[in-house]
């Protein structure tokens, strides 16, 4: 526009340049940096930014991601390889590997032993077949029946024990209430009988100090007792010779008893090995027997209704084999009781 | 007091154990993480012998771990991964709270994960150790694969379990190592022999289950994590031993025939291949193409320390096993809709048979119902409409009983509508003198090749004929007996009357001497003599011992008599039922 033409400078003398504006305080440094970058680029070494950029563009072109994401453990398409192949033996220094934690710590042999002798999968008794043989089914039913009997007995015992308390109370409450109300023939106190009988057990007065006589008497008595005992012992020892037969019989009996007890203890120890150990707060509760009653038995595989849950069975089996401790569902206990209050608006209604 | 006295609970068993909470604090992990770590590494709690000592005087029930085990856990690299995961969760929650969605996305992509390979290698240093422990893993994997994919436990875990289960079943089919099957009310028990180890596992039925609430799912999920990894590596190695391709691929021919069907009807494209594998109807591809050689007769060399006898028994056992592996070879089966398809397909293919099912039921059916060469048709209904002539219609228990009995049982007892014989457990081994159910006796007899006893023949005949015939039979028997008695009575009368009996003297016949029998008789004679010559006291003891030994036999006889009475009581009922049908 014309106004722009007018405003342009018409002198041929250029404006003075501000040298300070062109000065860069670290021009030498910058020059050195750019020279070095040029030298490195000539050799083929790229700065970090360029490298990453190239990586990103290559990854974008081929479709892979830049970072290597770890494959999740439960990915259904995960790959497996031969874990037990010999592989390449470690060539580095063992001390170096240990210190840099590249080599794993050796596992103690104690941990390779199984905590229980029971097998991992226990097959159910033959009476648990879907179409069982008569007698094996009856055996299984009998076992379940015995378990139920035991439970019932325990309950009855408890009820009986509680009942006794109440019964005794009942008896006595009536008598207590009635005491003093019924007018019976007055029981007159009997007169003390004559003093013909020598049944005086008067109060023994605190005696004075023992006299010398009494002391001597007591000492003589003591010595006599001791002597008698010693004599008796000597006679006993002599008589034992004649009692040899009975003595040997009693000794044999004792030995037998100890042997029996030892055997029983050994048997108990062996049984303990297959029992679940007490590993925590809760005791192990044996799972209920899976059994179908005679009228529940299926006539064909199609109409079979499965009994029991394998999940529970596996859980209990793990507890039985001492691999985990018995657990129950966690309860939610409130520290403070909940307070319920009506909203003021609701209170005003009615 | 001086400081040289020994204080209580400072040495000995009190310092060897550590309580669970203290251990957790030492590792600085949360309780769930600590439990997970213990399960993964195989660290179990111990019950100390003297609880009071270890618990420093109190008898409160606490869980104790060995201190050395916990110190060993400190060196585990995945402890660091647990801590990282905890931090990740915290950051993620913060990002969610601040609604930084890009941050959330970024973090989800970089979720920390850990691998369990080194733990498996450490716990099972050799392959055979891993194979020994694989039955627990199998039961858990099969159990998880039956769970519903609702999202309560990771769906990926369920898919992985299913894949590993199918791979295992395919391996068993290819190696023909299944030995025993047992259908119980809980599930199906299988037993196979892999690399010399007997492995037993249980598979639940494919019906819907209601899940129990008192099972800790997190613990079971951790076990499954460990076991899936173990099973994967075991599968890889097992496939290698058989020169099969891993991950498994269907054989060339099988793949082609299966592709020809319309695949979209059955599954998504991504899942159709795994579903075809799961159908178990085609064989697997091999890395080294195997040529079917004629089985050359191997020279038999006795192993170290074996006599000729043992070697012969071993050879016999091997021959029997080889025979058992080809039990269903040449037979063609067809499964109806209502039978458990997967279990039957697995068992049938394990013994060399061919199996198929209806096209609309599942992917992978190789031939149709109308195929003429089908030999057995497995049905579980009381009746079936169309019946082809040259095939047997049987109930599924026949297959399982054949497998357990190691021979092809007669098909008549398993026809439709017939009351099946009981399904006996192959895991029970009866010792001498125990009660053996009559069905098992029959089976043993069949195995030996003998015909069932004449009694049972008569029984069958009686059942088939009408009651009139039965009465006639009874009458004829009675008549025979009456005849014998009559002849004896005659002879007695004659003797009483003093007449000479009309007995003739005929030339004698030479009876062939049975040497074995005479030897046995001699031995029996000697034994009897020895018993007669014992002193009174010794005889008393001997009688007691024999009484105890024969107790078993007596009980068995009692049970057999009971069973007979039960059968006789039920015979008229059975007949009535039959007449009604």
TrEMBL record, chain A:
Keyword Cell division listed: no
Coiled coil: 137-164
Subcellular location, record wording: Nucleus, Nucleolus; Nucleus, Nucleoplasm
Entry's family note: Belongs to the NOP53 family.
Keyword flag Coiled coil: yes
Protein name: Ribosome biogenesis protein NOP53
Signal sequence bounds: none
Cellular component terms (Gene Ontology): nucleolus; nucleoplasm
One GO term (biological process): ribosomal large subunit assembly
GO molecular function: 5S rRNA binding
Keywords from the UniProt entry: Coiled coil, Nucleus, Ribosome biogenesis
Species classification: Eukaryota, Metazoa, Chordata, Craniata, Vertebrata
Region described as Disordered: spans on this chain: 184-224
Source organism of the structure: Cyprinus carpio
Biased composition (Acidic residues): 184-198
From TrEMBL, chain B:
Biased composition (Acidic residues): 455-487
Ranges where the BRCT domain occurs: 323-416
Location(s) in or outside the cell: Nucleus, Nucleolus; Nucleus, Nucleoplasm
InterPro entries from the UniProt entry: BRCT_dom, BRCT_dom_sf, PES
GO terms, biological process: maturation of 5.8S rRNA from tricistronic rRNA transcript (SSU-rRNA, 5.8S rRNA, LSU-rRNA); maturation of LSU-rRNA from tricistronic rRNA transcript (SSU-rRNA, 5.8S rRNA, LSU-rRNA)
GO MF annotations, alphabetized: ribonucleoprotein complex binding; RNA binding
Annotated segments matching region Disordered: 448-524, 559-581
Domain of life: Eukaryota
Keywords: Coiled coil, Nucleus, Ribosome biogenesis, rRNA processing
Keyword Coiled coil appears in the UniProt entry: yes
First-listed, main subcellular location of the protein, grouped into a coarse class: nucleus
Pfam families per the UniProt record, alphabetical: BRCT_2, Pescadillo_N
Residue ranges, compositional bias (Basic and acidic residues): 510-524
Function: Component of the PeBoW complex, which is required for maturation of 28S and 5.8S ribosomal RNAs and formation of the 60S ribosome.
PANTHER family found in the cross-reference section: PESCADILLO - RELATED, PESCADILLO HOMOLOG
Subunit and partners: Component of the PeBoW complex, composed of BOP1, PES1 and WDR12. Within the PeBoW complex BOP1 interacts directly with PES1 and WDR12. The PeBoW complex also associates with the 66S pre-ribosome. Component of the PeBoW complex, composed of BOP1, PES1 and WDR12. The complex is held together by BOP1, which interacts with PES1 via its N-terminal domain and with WDR12 via a high-affinity interaction between the seven-bladed beta-propeller domains of the 2 proteins. The PeBoW complex associates with the 66S pre-ribosome. The PeBoW complex also associates with DDX27, PES1 interacts directly with DDX27. Interacts with IRS1 and UBTF. May interact with MAP1B.
Stated family: Belongs to the pescadillo family.
Protein name, per record: Pescadillo homolog
Organism: Cyprinus carpio
């Amino acid at each position: 526009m014309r106004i722009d033409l007018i405003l342009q400078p018409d002198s041929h003398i250029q404006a003075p340049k501000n040298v300070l504006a062109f000065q860069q305080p670290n021009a030498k440094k910058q020059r050195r940096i750019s020279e070095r970058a040029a030298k490195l680029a000539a050799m083929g070494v790229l700065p970090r930014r360029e490298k990453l950029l190239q990586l990103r563009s290559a990854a974008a072109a081929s479709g892979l991601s830049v970072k290597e994401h770890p494959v999740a453990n439960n990915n259904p398409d995960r790959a497996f390889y031969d874990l037990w192949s010999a592989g390449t033996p470690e060539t580095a220094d063992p001390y170096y590997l240990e210190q840099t934690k590249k080599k794993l710590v050796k596992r103690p042999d104690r941990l390779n032993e199984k905590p229980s002798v029971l097998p991992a999968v226990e097959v159910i008794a033959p009476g648990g077949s879907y179409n069982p043989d008569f007698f094996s089914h009856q055996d299984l039913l009998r076992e379940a029946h015995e378990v139920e009997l035991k439970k019932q007995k325990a309950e009855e015992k408890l009820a009986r024990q509680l009942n006794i308390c109440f019964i005794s109370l009942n008896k006595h409450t009536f008598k207590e209430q009635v005491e003093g109300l019924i007018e019976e023939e007055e029981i007159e106190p009997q007169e003390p009988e004559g003093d013909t009988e020598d049944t005086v057990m008067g109060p023994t007065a605190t005696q004075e100090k023992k006299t010398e006589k009494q002391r001597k008497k007591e000492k003589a008595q003591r010595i006599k007792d001791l002597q008698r005992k010693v004599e008796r012992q000597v006679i006993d020892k002599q008589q034992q010779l004649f009692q040899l037969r009975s003595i040997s019989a009693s000794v044999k009996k004792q030995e037998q008893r100890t042997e029996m007890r030892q055997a029983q203890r050994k048997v108990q120890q062996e049984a303990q090995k297959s029992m679940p150990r007490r590993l925590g707060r809760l005791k192990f509760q044996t799972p209920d027997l899976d059994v179908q009653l005679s009228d529940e038995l299926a006539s064909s595989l199609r109409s079979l209704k499965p009994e029991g849950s394998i999940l529970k069975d596996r859980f209990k089996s793990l507890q039985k084999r001492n691999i985990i401790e018995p657990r129950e569902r966690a309860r939610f206990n409130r520290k403070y009781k909940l307070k319920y209050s009506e909203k003021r608006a609701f209170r005003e209604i009615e | 007091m001086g400081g040289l006295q020994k204080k209580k609970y400072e040495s000995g068993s009190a310092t060897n154990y550590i309580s669970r909470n203290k251990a957790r604090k030492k590792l600085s992990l949360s309780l769930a993480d600590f439990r997970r770590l213990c399960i993964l590494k195989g660290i179990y709690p111990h019950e100390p012998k003297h609880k009071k000592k270890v618990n420093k005087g109190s008898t409160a029930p606490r869980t104790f771990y060995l201190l050395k085990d916990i110190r060993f856990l400190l060196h585990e690299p995945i402890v660091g991964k647990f801590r990282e995961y905890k931090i990740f969760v915290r950051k993620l929650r913060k990002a969610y709270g601040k609604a930084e969605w890009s941050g959330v996305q970024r973090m989800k992509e970089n979720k920390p994960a850990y691998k369990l390979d080194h733990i498996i290698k450490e716990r099972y240093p050799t392959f055979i150790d891993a194979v020994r422990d694989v039955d627990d893993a199998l039961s858990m994997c099969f159990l998880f694969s039956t769970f519903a994919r609702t999202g309560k436990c990771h769906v990926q875990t369920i898919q992985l379990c299913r894949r590993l289960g199918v791979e295992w079943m395919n391996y068993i089919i290819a190696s023909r190592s299944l030995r025993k099957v047992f259908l119980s009310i809980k599930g199906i028990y299988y037993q196979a022999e892999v690399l010399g180890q007997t492995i037993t596992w249980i598979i639940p039925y494919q019906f819907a289950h209601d899940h129990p609430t008192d099972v800790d799912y997190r613990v079971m999920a951790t076990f499954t994590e460990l076991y899936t990894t173990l099973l994967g590596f075991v599968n890889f190695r097992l496939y290698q031993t058989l020169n099969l391709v891993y991950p498994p691929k269907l054989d060339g021919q099988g793949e082609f025939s299966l592709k020809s069907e319309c695949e979209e009807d059955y599954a998504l494209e991504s899942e159709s291949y795994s579903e075809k594998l799961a159908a178990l109807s085609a064989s697997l591809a091999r890395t080294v193409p195997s040529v079917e050689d004629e089985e050359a007769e191997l020279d038999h060399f006795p192993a170290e320390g074996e006599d000729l006898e043992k070697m012969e028994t071993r050879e016999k056992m091997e021959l029997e096993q080889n025979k058992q592996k080809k039990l269903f070879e040449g037979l063609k089966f067809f499964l109806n809709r209502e039978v458990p398809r997967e279990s039957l397909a697995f068992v049938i293919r394990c013994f060399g048979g061919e199996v198929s099912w209806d096209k609309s039921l599942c992917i992978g059916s190789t031939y149709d119902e109308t195929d003429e060469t089908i030999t057995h048709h497995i049905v579980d209904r009381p009746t079936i409409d169309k019946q082809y002539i040259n095939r047997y219609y049987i109930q599924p228990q026949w297959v399982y009983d054949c497998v357990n009995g190691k021979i092809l049982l007669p098909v008549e007892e398993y026809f439709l509508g017939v009351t099946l014989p009981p399904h006996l457990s192959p895991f029970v081994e009866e010792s001498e003198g125990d009660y053996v159910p009559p069905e098992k006796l029959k089976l043993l007899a069949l195995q030996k090749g003998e015909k069932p006893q004449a009694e049972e023949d008569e029984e069958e005949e009686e059942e088939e004929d009408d009651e009139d015939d039965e009465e006639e039979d009874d009458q004829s028997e009675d008549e025979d007996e009456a005849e014998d008695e009559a002849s004896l009575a005659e002879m007695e009368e004659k003797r009483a009357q003093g007449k000479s009996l009309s007995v003739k003297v005929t030339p004698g016949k030479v009876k062939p001497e049975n040497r074995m029998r005479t030897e046995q008789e001699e031995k029996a004679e000697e034994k009897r003599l020895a018993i007669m010559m014992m002193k009174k006291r010794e005889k008393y003891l001997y009688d007691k011992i024999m009484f105890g030994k024969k107790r078993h036999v007596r009980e068995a006889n009692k049970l057999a008599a009971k069973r007979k009475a039960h059968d006789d009581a039920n015979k008229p009922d059975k007949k009535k039922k039959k007449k009604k049908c």
